[in-house]
Design brief:
It is a single chain. The protein is of the alpha/beta class. It has 2 domains: 4-122, Phosphotransferase system, mannose-type IIA component (Rossmann fold, 3-Layer(aba) Sandwich); 139-223, Histidine-containing Protein, Chain: A (2-Layer Sandwich). It has 8 helices and 8 strands, in the order βαβαβαβααβαββαβα. β3 (62-66), α3 (69-80) and β4 form a beta-alpha-beta unit. The longest helix has 14 residues, at 12-25. It is elongated and about 55 Å long. Residues 2-127 form the PTS EIIA type-4 domain.
């Protein structure tokens, strides 16, 4: 089982598109769009949101994300009307970034509380490297990106998922920027493209394994055809 997500938007196209993007990074997470009015116009539909929550709930709870203020009200009313209101929670988070962060966290096995925390923190992705990756005992390797899209959404999510649970602090360096390799949004913010040379730094009990894991991903083009 995994935490489910419901995307509440005034636009069906916006909700559907964001669900499609997030699903690329979290293929095992139920992500259900609930956008637009039932008749096809712009707005939010209470009944549609309730149905979406029921579809997304696989037993580990649901996190709802919304685009604008009135969508928040619809989401909160839907949660309050559930037989068990504790089964779902509305995230006060940026719609796109929060959805991506929550989806990746859920894909990695995060609890509902942790997925909610990931969404809430998504608006402030920090490009400062964790202090633990710097120092005389830190290990590092340099790699060149050969995949077509570089460290964009799906590859960044693959890196973050691969490192989840490892006893190592890992960062990625591009030029004068350094990002936490456990954060999809931070990795994407580097703007690393095909042909860029990046440095991977790691420190901790599994630093060597972490570096080898990232090396394998890069050399395998993150599984891209």
């Amino acid at each position: 089982m995994t935490v489910g997500l419901v995307l509440v938007s005034h636009s069906a196209k916006l909700a559907d598109g964001l669900a499609e993007v997030a699903a690329q990074m979290a293929p095992e997470v139920p992500i259900v769009p609930a956008g637009g009015l039932a008749e096809g116009g712009i707005g939010t539909d209470y009944d549609q949101v309730v149905a979406a929550v029921q579809r997304a709930d696989r037993g580990d709870g649901v996190v709802l994300l919304y685009d604008l203020g009135s969508a928040q009200m619809t989401a909160e009313l839907a949660v309050e009307s559930l037989p068990d209101p504790e089964a779902a929670v509305v995230a006060d988070a940026p719609f796109v970034e929060g959805t991506v962060a929550a989806a990746v966290a859920a894909q990695g096995g995060a609890s509902r509380a942790d997925a909610l925390a990931a969404a809430t923190a998504a608006g402030a992705a920090d490009l400062e490297a964790p202090a633990a990756t710097q120092g005389a005992d830190a290990e590092s390797i340099e790699l060149v990106l050969h995949n077509e899209v570089g460290l964009h959404a799906r590859p960044a999510a693959v890196v973050a998922r691969t490192l989840a649970g490892m006893e190592a602090d890992v960062s990625v360096v591009l030029g004068d920027q350094e990002a936490d390799a456990h954060s999809v949004l931070a990795l994407m913010s580097l703007g690393a493209r095909k042909g860029d040379r990046i440095e991977i730094r790691a420190r901790g009990a599994q630093a060597t394994q972490a570096l080898e894991a990232v090396k394998g991903l890069v050399e395998g083009n993150f599984g891209e055809a």
